[in-house]
Amino acid sequence: MTTALEITKVSKIYGKGDNAVKAVDQVSLDVKAGEFIALVGPSGSGKTSLLAMLAALLSPSEGSIFIDNSDLRKMAEKERTRFRREKIGFTFQANNLVPYLTALENVSLMLKLNNVGNKESIQKAEQILVRLGLEDRLSSFPRQLSGGQKQRVAIARALVHNPSLVLADEPTASLDTDRAYQVVKTFSDLIHEQGRAGIMVTHDLRMTKHVDKIVQMVDGKIVNIISNQIEIEALSANDSFGMPIQIPQNTSSQLNIPLAPPPTVSTPARV
User: Fold this and answer.
1) Alpha-carbon Rg of the chain, whole angstroms?
2) Which CATH number does the domain housing residue 38 bear?
3) Which of 147-156, 191-200, 208-217 has the lowest mean pLDDT?
4) Does 153 map to a domain?
5) Which one, out of 3, 75, 110, 203, has a CA that is 20 to 30 A from the CA of 232?
6) Which residues does 64 contact at the CB level (< 8 Å), separation at least 6?
7) How much is the average pLDDT of 38-45?
8) How far is CA 131 from the centre of its chain?
């Protein structure tokens, strides 16, 4: 697999002098095309700042970020905006769908912003929504969709323009457990099928079952990378909320990350 994302000794420093805070500290990481990674860690660990730099919303104070062999630091603001629109896809905890557009219109809008014609935009948007099991919801507005359906529309919007890198910031935090599992499984399937590089930030290790690696951050640094599927399954299967997670004795590493309690939602039971 080719390397879609290359992060080399990246730091992000806020403030100056005695007030300087290093939110991200000398982070290096490669993500292959078709690889799905979970980025985990406590609040204040640097996940959000790192994600913002990968999204070309912030510039690193030190180090380099290459996406598809393009150096983000060397781009002017206008070029970075265009690159972000064309090469990066986003999903968020709050799905950020446009409330007065249908599911089909929300997804096709992403293509129209990239100067794809109306007919082709609608065709491609419909194809990916059908792939996500939303063929009977194409004309539905966000208010008519369940939480899981809205997140699937958001996933479709993030992937419809064939980005090289897809970033998901707590995409399941507002969903109940069953819906959350379905959303992550769908997201993982599409990342692997389409050969995209995917990074998901999550506080809930149960959601890591379908990732290829778990990357743990603490105090701005990467302190652990787990790629062994036995270890990943052991972590994702643990349901002792709030308790330290122990890797089985026949594996090589250990994480102590508390699981988030199951979220509460008021959305309909339908997914």
Assistant:
1) 19
2) 3.40.50.300
3) 147-156
4) yes
5) 3
6) 6, 7, 8, 9, 10, 71, 72, 73
7) 91
8) 19
165-169 and 197-201 strand pairing: parallel
pTM here is: 0.81
Q: Which of 70, 49, 69, 68 is nearest to 60 (CA)?
A: 49
Nearest CA among 165, 153, 170 for reference residue 69: 165
> Tokens 């935090």 — which residue?
173
What's the rounded Cα separation, in Å, for the pair 203 and 73?
29
Give 156-175 pLDDT, tens digit per residue. 999 999 999 999 998 877 77
Does residue 254 fall inside a structural domain? Answer: no
| Domain assignment of residue 25, given as a range | 3-237
Distances (CA, A) of 239 to 59, 177, 207: 38, 11, 11
Q: Strand pairing of 36-40 and 197-201? A: parallel
| 137-146, 186-195, 228-237, 252-261, range with the lowest pLDDT | 252-261
Residue 201 tokens, joined? 């930030």
**Distance (Å, whole) CA 267 – CA 271:** 9
